[in-house]
Structures are given as structure tokens and as C-alpha cells.
Design a protein that fits this description.
With about 625 residues, the chain is mainly alpha-helical. The protein has 29 helices and 2 strands. The longest helix has 29 residues.
Length: about 625
């Protein structure tokens, strides 16, 4: 077999493995030694490595003999290699391997001989010997190392698959790591390593390698594998997004479709269990189950809305608001689920505001109700609750505007009317404290117009009239108050001044009191004439009949009040929302001051009538 045939065979063998071949150059040159005989010499295939023995010009007869012996061995080795190549063409690799071994014994510094023997071992599936021969060849020849390293890497790769088929997963992993040592960027090798790591249950390392590969290769199979690993680690949401990414890359990927079906089925099962738990009253477990549904399929907005509803029932308002806000971003505004989520959101704001109100965080309650009103402007309860919060921090103008807005939505709501009367009475107390008794009388009159069955309103107006020396009108108010509540303490004190030396029974039984008491009986029984009844329109408040000399004055005041009330409404709509990052608790001093300025009857009435509407 000549030199060209050997080179052609080796080139085809290496090209099939993706490598390059450094041609075997065996040239026979005739030289004459000192005695004139001709001999064949072997030109070196590669540059000699350190420690090799290159023939040199003999300096003595002994050196000539050694050179002659080496030349004979080289000639014999070349002949054996030629014969081995001929035998390899006939697929007789065992005999070829034996001849190559004899050639290597004669000339062990030729890297191509080791490479050829490595190929024979590879054909015989003796991967270990093939690896050893290629390693030795690479050691001897640095020039051909690159091509041979590629071939050696492929042999390690093949050997790893054989070991994997034999269930020697650790051995397969070791071999693929050696293959990656020479070809670290080969995608097929890295994919095999993932399989071996997965078989060894080294899931964390497997997941890290998959994520590293996905940065440079977006393959559907890699996303499916990462989805399985994420599911194994309990990262269900990541698993969901991975399989959907795989379907985007390959819509016909059956494994990804099967995983999606499994996730959807699991999510629905958990939702059904959550519904049953909620109906049985086990809300914490229901929340846990619906959370699993959300993690399994985060695109279904109904799951998030359902969990938000359960959290609201549990009083976890912050988490509920977050869920409703997320759900709103997943849906079309025209859908029914969107409207349900929006309704639940505003109700959660309202419930949260009530919670803050009950703990004394009035400014926080106002901020929450601002959010609710911004999304739902036709709910009277929101305005009523915000009015209560404003009233508790002393913003009576804002409170009155909110009550008026609520009254426009429902002109016949007696609770709202009562709250309006309470605000006017508080205005009257401020005016009375500042010794503006005339203005205080007007405020008390408006309060009575709204609710004519509260004894304290009449007592307060009687005091303001008494301070203005309107004694008949003051006595009439005292009689009205005594009829409604004869034990009121302030009424007894005022009676001592208006009716000296008379007790309560004598005052009520006096003939001069009969007309007023009869009017009150009719009022309480609901039989009072229309002009004496409390009449309210949707925008303005009417007043009870006054003395003839005060009608013009009172009408002027009502006109000013209407104008001021409209201004307050505008201010309320345009004012910035109150925000408070840290819950603000009133000091004990402020609480004491508020209690001192608020009469006992106001506390009693507020507790019974003026609590926020849930």
C-alpha cells in the first residue's frame, strides 16, 4: 500500500469524525554509507519531540551500526503499516491492529502509527485502547494535535453513550466531561451531559446547565426539559411559562402540550377543592388551594379574583387589593369578570377603610375611600364612610359635602340625613363656643330640620336662644326636649333658669305647654302637618317653621350656606388624597379634648346611628 493510499484512508477516517489529518509522509531515499551500500531512510512524519532520537551522522563505527539498525527497523515498520492499511481495507481490524503493534515496537516515536492503531481499536469497539492510542499520538505530535483532539473528543462521546446504555451513568458523565474538555462548545455533547446528569438525579446541576444552554440555543426541547426540572423543584409557575415558550417555538411539540394539559387539569382540580373548602368555612385552606391553582396557571384571572375575595373575607386587605389589581391587568374591560373584579376591589377598599376607621386611622381611611370613589362614584356608602372619617378629624366642610353627595344618590336615606344633622349640630357647638350665639342658633335649627326627634338639638338651640335673651323661644325648645327625654341633664339645668322654682312635672303639665307638647306628640307619631314635617330635597335642606321675624334672616343664611356648600364640594373633588405611610394614632391629649367638646349624647347617638355602612 503506497503513501497516497495510506493518506487517503486516514483522511477519510478522520473526516468522518470531523477531524483533520496530518499526512503521512514516508519517502524512501537512497543513501550510501561508507561501504557504498544503499539503504532506505524514513523521513520524520512530524517534528521530533524532546527526548526523541534523530539519526545523526555517525561519528564512529558503533554509531554507524546503530543508525543502520534504526533504518532497518523504520523500513520494517513502514512495511508493516502498509500491510496493516491493506488489511484494514478488508475490515480485518484485529490482524491490522497486531501489525500496527509490531510496527510501534520497532518505531515507537511515530504518532501516525498510534493514530492508526487507535482507529483499529475504535472499529473493534475497544474504546479504552482507542483513547490511549490517540492520547499517545497527541503527545508525540503537537502539529496534528488539533485534528486528533477533535477525533478523541468524539471517541469519548461515543464511549459515554455506550456506558449510558449499560446504565453506568457516572462513567458516562466522566467520559462526556472528557469530551467537553476538547470541545466545550459542542451543543450535542452538552445535551448528552444533561441527560446523564438527569439520570444521576443531579437535578440542580442539570438545571444550571440547561439555563446556560438556553442563553445561546433557544430549543423547544430545552424549554420542555427545564419545565420538567422546575416542576420537580416545585417551581410550578416557571414550569408553566417554559412549556408555553416551547409551544411558541414548536406548536406541535407533544411533550409540551401534554404538560400544559396536566397543568390545566391540576389547576381546575385545586380550584374545585378550594370552592368546597370555602363553602365549608375553611378559608385558610381554601386560600392555599387556590394559590396552587394560580401558580399552576397564572393566566386565568378568575383564580386570582377568587383568591382576592377569600382574602377580603379573611381581613387580609393588602393582599386582596394586590390580587384584584393583578386580575384587572389580565382581562378586557368589557368582560364580566373584569367588572366583578373591579366591584370586589372597591369593596375591599371600603372594608379596609372601615378597619382603619375602627382603629382610629382616619386619614388612612380617607385615602382608601378616595381610591374606592375614584372607581365607583355611584355608591352612597363610600361617601358616607368618607364623611364619617372627615368628621372624626374635624373636617366638617368635607364631611358635609360627602353626606350631601350621598344624599343626592338616595334622598330618602334616614341614616345620611341623621349624619347631616349631626354635622350641623357640631357646627353649632363651635359657634356657641366662640360666643356667636346667633350663628349657633341657625346651625342648631338646620340640625333640627334634618332630624327633629333628638332632644339634645333642642337643648342646644334653647341655650343659644337663652344667651340671646329669646326666652319664649328657649322655653319652647326646652319643652320639646323634655318631651323627648325628660332626664337629660342639661335640660334640668336650663329649666332652673327658664322656670325658677318649678319642677319638671309642673312645667310639662302647665296649660301653656299643651300646644307645644301636642305638636311634639304628632311629630313623634308621624302625624304632624306637612309644614311642620322634616322635608328634604336632593340638593337643599328645608327648615322647620320659624318665628315670623326670623324668616328673612334665616333664608339669607341658607342661601349663603348653599353657596358655601357648593364651594366645599369643588374643593373636595380637587383636593389631593391624604396619604400617611405610618399609621398615625391620636395622642391621649387630643382624645381627651375631643371627649370634652363632644357631649355624651353625641357619643351615644354616633354609636347607634352613625357607624360606617359596610
Amino acid at each position: 500500500m503506497d503513501e497516497l493510499e495510506i493518506n487517503d484512508y486516514l483522511r477519510r477516517a478522520l473526516e468522518s469524525a470531523g477531524g483533520q489529518f496530518s499526512e503521512l509522509s514516508v519517502s524512501h531515499h537512497e543513501h550510501e554509507d561508507d561501504d557504498g551500500t544503499a539503504f532506505l531512510t524514513d523521513r520524520p512524519l512530524t517534528p521530533k519531540v524532546e527526548g526523541s532520537h534523530a539519526p545523526s551522522t555517525p561519528a564512529a563505527p558503533r554509531d554507524n551500526a546503530e543508525n543502520r539498525l534504526r533504518q532497518i527497523k523504520s523500513q520494517k515498520a513502514a512495511k508493516l503499516v502498509s500491510e496493516a492499511c491493506e488489511i484494514m481495507k478488508a475490515d480485518n481490524f484485529i490482524e491490522a491492529c497486531a501489525k500496527l503493534s509490531r510496527a510501534i515496537k520497532m518505531k515507537g516515536d511515530n504518532a501516525n502509527y498510534y493514530m492508526l492503531r487507535g482507529e483499529c481499536c475504535l472499529q473493534l469497539c475497544d474504546f479504552r485502547e482507542a483513547i490511549l492510542n490517540y492520547n499517545h499520538a497527541i503527545f508525540l505530535s503537537s502539529e496534528s494535535a488539533h485534528g486528533w483532539e477533535a477525533r478523541l473528543s468524539y471517541i469519548h462521546y461515543l464511549y459515554s453513550q455506550i456506558l449510558y446504555d449499560e446504565h453506568d451513568f457516572q462513567g458516562a458523565l466522566d467520559q462526556i466531561n472528557l469530551a467537553l474538555h476538547y470541545k466545550a462548545s459542542r451543543f450535542s455533547y452538552q445535551s448528552r451531559k444533561i441527560a446523564y446528569l438527569y439520570a444521576l438525579k443531579q437535578n440542580k446541576a442539570c438545571l444550571e446547565l440547561v439555563e446556560e444552554l438556553l442563553q445561546s440555543h433557544e430549543e423547544a426541547e430545552l424549554y420542555v426539559l427545564r419545565a420538567r426540572l422546575n416542576k420537580l423543584f416545585g417551581h410550578i409557575t416557571k414550569c408553566f411559562y417554559d412549556v408555553h415558550k416551547a409551544l411558541e417555538l414548536n406548536p406541535e411539540n407533544r411533550q409540551a402540550s401534554r404538560i400544559v394539559d396536566e397543568l390545566n387539569k391540576s389547576a381546575e382540580e385545586c380550584r374545585s377543592v378550594a370552592v368546597n373548602l370555602a363553602l365549608s368555612g375553611n378559608l385558610p385552606e381554601a386560600i392555599n388551594k387556590i394559590t396552587v391553582s394560580i401558580d399552576t396557571n397564572p393566566t386565568v384571572a378568575e383564580y386570582t379574583v377568587f383568591r382576592g375575595t377569600l382574602l377580603r373575607q379573611q381581613g387580609q386587605f393588602d393582599e386582596a387589593i394586590d390580587d384584584f389589581m393583578k386580575a384587572l391587568t389580565k382581562m378586557n374591560e368589557d368582560s364580566k369578570t373584569y367588572q366583578d373584579a373591579l366591584r370586589q376591589l372597591v369593596l375591599t377598599y371600603n372594608d379596609f377603610a372601615i378597619e382603619c376607621y375602627s382603629k382610629g386611622y382616619y386619614e388612612e381611611a380617607i385615602s382608601l375611600l378616595d381610591q374606592a370613589i375614584k372607581r365607583e362614584r355611584n355608591e352612597k356608602g363610600f361617601y358616607t364612610n368618607r364623611g364619617d372619617s372627615f368628621r372624626m378629624i374635624g373636617y366638617l366642610s368635607f364631611a358635609l359635602a360627602d353626606y350631601q353627595q350621598a344624599l343626592e344618590l338616595d334622598p330618602h336615606d334616614w341614616v345620611i340625613i341623621s349624619k347631616i344633622s349631626l354635622v350641623h349640630h357640631q357646627y353649632g357647638i363651635k359657634e356657641y363656643t366662640n360666643k356667636r350665639y346667633s350663628d349657633a342658633e341657625k346651625c342648631f335649627t338646620t340640625a333640627i330640620t334634618c332630624n327633629a326627634k333628638i332632644a339634645q338639638y333642642y337643648i342646644s338651640r334653647a341655650w343659644s336662644r337663652f344667651m340671646q335673651k329669646h326666652l319664649p323661644a328657649a322655653r319652647a325648645d326646652l319643652l320639646r326636649a323634655m318631651y323627648l327625654d325628660s332626664s337629660i341633664e342639661e335640660g334640668v339645668m336650663l329649666a332652673a333658669r327658664l322656670y325658677p322654682n318649678q319642677n319638671i312635672d309642673s312645667i310639662l303639665n302647665a296649660k301653656s305647654s299643651e300646644k307645644i307638647l301636642r305638636q311634639m306628640r304628632e311629630l313623634v307619631a308621624g302625624e304632624a302637618p306637612v309644614q311642620d314635617q322634616v322635608v328634604l330635597s336632593s340638593n337643599t335642606l328645608a327648615h322647620e317653621p320659624l318665628a315670623q321675624e326670623n324668616i328673612a334672616q334665616y333664608n339669607g343664611w341658607m342661601d349663603r350656606y348653599k353657596a358655601t356648600n357648593n364651594e366645599v364640594k369643588v374643593m373636595l373633588e380637587t383636593r389631593p388624597s391624604l396619604t400617611q405611610r405610618v399609621p398615625k394614632i391620636m395622642s391621649q391629649q387630643k382624645v381627651s379634648q375631643r371627649e370634652n367638646t363632644t357631649c355624651a349624647w353625641m357619643k351615644k347617638y354616633f354609636d347607634s346611628k352613625a357607624n360606617p355602612v359596610s
